[in-house]
Design a protein that fits this description.
CATH class of the largest domain in chain A: Alpha Beta
Largest interface: A-B, 27 and 26 residues
Strand order of the largest sheet of chain A: 12-18-17-16-15-14-13
Distance between the termini of chain A: 23 Å
Structural class of chain A: alpha+beta
Helix content of chain A: 10-25%
Number of helices of chain A: 6
Keywords (chains A, B, C): 2Fe-2S, Iron, Iron-sulfur, Metal-binding, Oxidoreductase
CATH superfamily of the largest domain in chain A: Naphthalene 1,2-dioxygenase Alpha Subunit, Chain A, domain 1
GO molecular function, one term (chains A, B, C): 2 iron, 2 sulfur cluster binding
Radius of gyration of chain A: 22 Å
Strand content of chain A: 25-35%
Number of domains of chain A: 2
Number of strands of chain A: 18
Mean pLDDT of chain A: 95
Protein name (chains A, B, C): Rieske 2Fe-2S domain-containing protein
Shape of chain A: globular
InterPro entries (chains A, B, C): Cholesterol_7-desaturase, Rieske_2Fe-2S, Rieske_2Fe-2S_sf, VanA_C_cat
Organism (chains A, B, C): Croceibacterium xixiisoli
CATH topology of the largest domain in chain A: Naphthalene 1,2-dioxygenase Alpha Subunit, Chain A, domain 1
Oligomer: homotrimer
Low-confidence stretches of chain A: none
Chain lengths: ~350, ~350, ~350
């Protein structure tokens, strides 16, 4: 199973890219350096000097250019070398790859595939930390596991009942019931109503209520979810569809999450979470972030242990269950898109 | 060189397996989880869920069953899945391997081969920590080395003269003389009398005496040894055979040791040591354990260094010496048994 | 690209080889132990016992011999086993490789190739710490990088302008100008005058002056350099050749440096530096060592990062620049010598 390259991957939080300071990350095994030039222009270059393969991320920003600090090659934002100390002629092959890069929703998105296909409309509609309609906290975790295992985890919430019984306070409903699943162009939509429950630890209630969760899981690995608790009967009243958020008892929250494959067996996981404005305050956000910190550490323990078992298994085979419908649909979508990418490359060659 | 699988391997001390708490170990590269169910039943299962290969050792005991805490598959002690959350049908292939497991002599023994051949009479007659006839201390060490190298070490006590000159206070006799070696059905017996010596640091004596050591080294890698000091002349009087333990001057001791291959290049070493009751007290046992702690650390330094040299040698070849008779006999026995196992599997297939 | 084996490699500082105490090092992936016997004789043996491959460096010196402390094999300085405990006969194949070894210039040099070709006149003329004409400090660094990358670094000083702008206070001259390069039998000579400059941090001057550097870089990876500052006009006066050192304003210094490949991807870097006597005192030497400590750490950061990028690159290709003339010449020399060695071995076989 491979990954889609013609997609926007989250490389960093906006705040991680300081002015004139190269940042290093590996995405899909490609070393990438990202910097903001003097003009504020955001640049993402292959992090490998053409001369002797030193990382450009150890280099120095000069205007909007980046100088390798080993022997001084100077790079344009588009990747061409424009200066080779001690040499007049600059070979045309003296260039590194320049990646399309966009800053949006407080994230730095890098397009890892064919530059001519980079389409900003494919950036998932995450919510930025500065969005006035939300009060969000955020964090990130590095995994010693392949991204696919984290995607699989996020594509099947039945694990909440077991992995997160204490942190999220999830009851047996997640494992006992199926979410409504709708295929999207570049992902899967999950909708789930849990009726007549007192909610989980993050949204506990003294009276029974209806609890709503809806999320899109989008290529390459981005989860965008709205959740909230509503008066008993809301689920039935809206025919298990989308409720009027204004009718929520409390706690309509939104979370953006992104899984980025670094190398074949390592990944970075970015997340934000918090209430819609009017549905909670900073204290509520902080409580949610405390729960998230505990819960995401639980996932990490399980998934990294799973990776170790997989790695020591000769021919690892999974046995899908009824809850894996979404996992299977999403992975088929990834395979279809990855295959089409390969086909396009074959035809072009 | 391979290992015998149709054998009982020490997986843990009895005390390591707490009630209702899965324990994880890898034996011969197989991930295994061991637990005591509510009824007290001891269970050893393949530590790999059929669903997505998460380790069952992160699971939860429910009665005598074990639930995977990733997505909730519930396993019987025999390995079958009996519950898949959100799904009625349970495929017959939804089962993991269940290993024969026995608690005896304070050790948990797991049979790593064909279950139908598991024969409790093959469990080596170690001495448990609770045996009223002995006063035993115990410990364990993990090695970054293959089990075979530790076995080889224990099969040739000529190393005592060099590796343990200070800790055991072993003199030149171990390297200068040969033990009497007797092949057993599933191992080798070593007998050695050292005459007219003042003994080693663990059994020092003001007057010359005869020192006796006899041990069996048994498949898969278990050492069971009696040692003691006797009046000068005892060796000759018993024709270098088995002495009357009642005639010992002091310090008739017993040690049980077990070497368990975890992975191809890692091992766990379990040991107990102490006097027979009437031949020493708790203080004597503690003195022995202090010596053992020092000596076994000396072995670990040498064997892990040996492993590093072997690993960086293109075609590692050993050059056996006269002292290697027991090593050679035991390794031939292992190869013979391993080959027979392979043959049996071929015929069955 | 391979390394030359018929060459003297620096294995250690003289002071590292204490009397009767085996020292362990790996050179070109060969495990080697070095010791001084009772007579003071220096011995270098393959660090791998013929018996069970334990490292002899864990052994004990007995006279000028070395005893393996696993099972007691005793080795002559020439590598033959002369004692096998418990055994009369000693097979003729019971021998390890003995390496030609010489102590000179405060370094222990080991010849890694065919012993019959070992020629002490090929030892590079480094300056020892005890040379009365110099006041030298010294140090060493281990690299997680292949030796070739460190050699390449030392063969192109244009990196001083970028990597060491602060530590050495190197200006743009190193990248802007070419050194004069002269091929030697077993290396390359670099000469460089920087005219009308106030010098670098290690040789700052209130008035403009001419700065001189000349170094030989010799097989297998030894740098020997003289540097100093001279009155303005000296460069022109001596036609950019060798100045009269007596005319130096201050600070004529000498540095010996050696790069030793340990394994395929690790290396050890030895260095000394200081003024000629009469050109500076202990305080000047200590100032130089402080600068060197900072500068060599800068190299290490860059080169180890370069190694990581190379390792994750499928088919790593460099793109040489005008400054790489010396790098190219030296690496061609290495390839030529390595090829001749291989040819000699083929013919002999």
């Amino acid at each position: 199973m491979s990954y889609v390259r013609n997609a926007w991957y989250v490389a960093a939080w906006s705040e991680e890219i300081a002015p004139m300071t190269p940042f290093a990350i590996t995405i899909l095994d490609d070393p990438v350096t990202i910097y903001r030039g003097e003009s504020g222009r955001l640049v993402a270059l292959e992090d490998r000097c053409v001369h002797r393969l030193a990382p450009l991320s150890l280099g120095r920003c000069e205007g909007d250019r980046l100088r390798c600090m080993y022997h001084g090659m100077l790079y344009e934002p588009e990747g061409q070398v424009v200066e080779i100390p001690g040499q007049e002629q600059i070979p045309s092959r003296a260039r590194v790859r320049s990646y399309p890069v966009v800053e949006r929703h407080s994230w730095i998105w890098v397009w890892m595939g064919a530059a001519d296909l980079a389409d900003e409309s494919l950036i998932p509609p995450a919510v930025g930390l500065d969005d006035p309609d939300f009060i969000l906290g955020h964090g990130q975790l590095d995994y010693a596991a392949e991204a696919r295992l984290i995607n699989d985890n996020l594509l099947d919430f039945s694990h909440l009942t077991y992995v997160h019984a204490e942190s999220f306070g999830a009851g047996p409903e997640f494992a006992a019931t199926q979410a409504k699943i709708t295929p999207l162009d570049r992902g899967i939509r999950y909708q789930r109503w849990i009726e007549n429950s007192r909610g989980s630890s993050s949204r506990a209630s003294p009276v029974p209520m209806d609890s709503y969760m809806c999320y899109d899981f989008l290529i390459p690995g981005v989860l965008l979810m709205t959740g909230g608790v509503f008066p008993l009967g809301t689920a039935k009243a809206c025919d298990y569809g989308v409720p009027d958020l204004a009718e929520a008892i409390s706690g309509v929250t939104f979370t953006s999450q992104a899984v980025t494959p670094l190398t074949e067996k390592t990944s970075r996981y970015f997340f934000s979470w918090g209430p819609r404005r009017g549905h909670g305050d900073e204290a509520f956000r902080d409580m949610l972030m405390g729960i998230a910190g505990k819960a995401f550490a639980e996932d990490k323990v399980m998934i990294e242990a799973q990776q170790i078992v997989i790695d020591r298994t000769l021919d690892p085979q999974i046995m899908p269950t009824a809850h894996d419908k979404g996992v299977t649909l999403f992975n088929r979508l990834v395979e279809k898109l990855a295959k089409a990418e390969q086909e396009r490359i074959r035809v072009a060659a």
